[in-house]
Amino acid sequence: MKINLSTKNVSKLAITPQLQNAIKLLQFTAVEINQEIQNIFESNPLIEKEDLCEEFEENNCIDHYAHYDKDFTSNIKSTVSTSEIIERTSSEEDTLQKHLMWQINLLNISENDKSLAESIIDYINDDGYLIKDIFEVFDDLYKNTETTVDELIAVQHLLQNLDPIGTCTKNIQESLLVQIQNTEGKSIIINKACTVVSEFFQEFTENKTKIIKDNLNISDKEITLIQKIIKKQNARPGNIILNKKNYNYVIPDIKVSKINSEWVIKSNKLISPEIKINEKYINIDEKNMSEVDKKYIKENLQEAKLFIKNINYRNDTLLRLAKCVFQKQLDFFDNGIEKLNPMNLKEVAKDMDVHESTVSRLSNGKYIETPYGVFELKFFFSSSIKNDYGKDYSSKSIKEKIKKIISHENKKKPLSDNQIKNMLFEDGIELARRTVSKYRESLNFESSSDRKNK
User: Fold this and answer.
1) Cα–Cα distance between 71 and 67 in angstroms, integer?
2) Are residues 266 and 360 in the same domain?
3) HSE toward the beta carbon, residue 233, CA cutoff 13 A
4) Which of 207, 239, 271 is where one domain is finished?
5) Based on the domain organization, do 199 and 147 belong to the same domain?
6) Is residue 26 within 8 Å of 314, Cβ to Cβ?
């Protein structure tokens, strides 16, 4: 055996607490971000909200003071009725299953793999775990078919690495392993943490650290780092999606409106008002201050600067995303849902020069107010269908066309899926009848015979 020595430079991004806070704020919904600002406003005396008088009319006192109000959702009077808000809000309850399928449909994978993914997703519970072993899923659905178990497992691995990471696993041990494998940091300690979870998970849960240290020859410092890594992971990854949907109202983060024939895109300042550091504390004289007071001011100043930086990054990136979506979906803003263009995470991430995961985090649970209603940002992402002439259509715009066709049909003679298929073909959209049926069912329309009997 010949032994060679070689050196290799590897760049790794260490996830610092500061970066973790920035990522956490990216994921926050409008309600959560407002609450976070209110919390730090009350706990840190160095932070204050900026006066936004210049953005309001002189005599409009209600709007002027609205951004100082803690419970802004209940105190702002509106001329829009509750029923109109509900009608104009085009959002539906998200689920873990829908969130995963949304990402799958945006990936450049085969229809067969998408079908396999959908089958696996049907077998997960709210926590994100499979209710059956993957081999049992295979026996239930694909035994004696052309699909192999290796193909099913390959798609399972793909699902495990989507957002939220660690779902579609058989148990907490496998989920933690997947999450740790996706953790950025020093590769050596990450690898050791993976070994602990995969080979000594029982000992870890029983806090038998001596057995782990002896078998893996690791130090007390290393076992402490490993414990921190493992405890940072989510034991119920599916709950990330469910917890975000715990609100019975929707507040738009971004507003898009047309003023004097010009489109205007701006952030909703009532959600995330401008905040700054109180100048009295910046220029404070420390000569007559005790060491305790100096430390208190220093720590709060550091916290304030970091929080403002992260909030500004979150808001600026969200606004950039909204502007990018606007540019790509200008046909929608001019003409409505039927003109929605196909768009995926990869192309938007490339235009913004950010990672796809950043776009995914920002799209989920963030809303944009348009002349056609309030939509979740992820609504604008959809797969494409190409017609005979090479033109791409958004799957959502096709669904809207089908919805319009059925809504305007003769109720006494409902259109069959084949007739709808032919009408779409006349518009240059060629679909199989079964695809039309699939889209019709997803829109909660019954078959033509059932619609006729009603």
Assistant:
1) 10
2) yes
3) 25
4) 239
5) yes
6) yes
**Pairing mode, strands 275-277 and 367-370:** unpaired
Stated as kind and residue range, the H or E segment containing 263 is: strand 262-267
Residues 142 and 30 in one domain: no
- Amino acid (1-letter code) at residue 246: N
d(CA 181, CA 105): 24
At residue 267, what are phi and psi to the nearest 5 degrees? -75, 155
Backbone angles phi, psi at 241, to 5 degrees: -75, -45
- β-partners of residue 368 are 254, 375
Report the C-alpha gap between 436 and 438 in whole angstroms.
5
Tokens coding 137: 């899923």
Choosing from 320, 343, 374, the residue where a domain stops is: 374
The predicted-structure confidence for 351-402, as pLDDT tens digits, reads as follows 998 888 788 888 888 899 988 888 888 888 877 666 555 566 677 778 888 8
Structural domain includes residue 1: no
The H helix count followed by the E strand count for the chain is: 24, 8
109-130 pLDDT per residue, tens: 888 899 899 999 988 988 899 9
Helices 220-232 & 209-216 angle (0-180, nearest 10): 110
- Total Cβ atoms within 10 A of residue 339: 16
Position 96 scores a pLDDT of 87
For residue 186, give its domain range: 96-239
pLDDT at 210 over 50: yes
Compute the chain's Rg from CA coordinates.
Answer: 26
pLDDT tens for 237-253 read: 888 776 555 444 677 88
Claim to verify: residue 195 and residue 103 sit in the same structural domain = yes
Total number of domains constituting the chain:
3
Regarding beta strands 367-370 and 254-259, do their DSSP bridges make them parallel or antiparallel, or are they unpaired?
parallel
Q: What are phi and psi of 183, to 5 degrees?
A: -85, 130
Give me the percent of the chain exceeding a pLDDT of 70: 80
Q: Within this chain, do residues 65 and 185 fall inside the same structural domain, yes or no?
A: no
The CATH number covering residue 445 comes to 1.10.10.60
Element (H, E) at 264: strand 262-267
Rounded to whole angstroms, how far apart are CA atoms 112 and 396?
21
Report how far residue 219's alpha carbon sits from residue 205's, in angstroms, rounded to the nearest whole number: 19
Domain assignment of residue 91, yes or no: no
User: What does the alpha-carbon distance between residue 322 and residue 280 come to, in Å, rounded to a whole number?
Assistant: 36
Answer whether the bond into residue 164 is a cis peptide, omega within 30°. Answer: yes
| pTM: predicted TM-score of the whole model, two decimal places | 0.52
Token code pair at residue 46? 């160095």
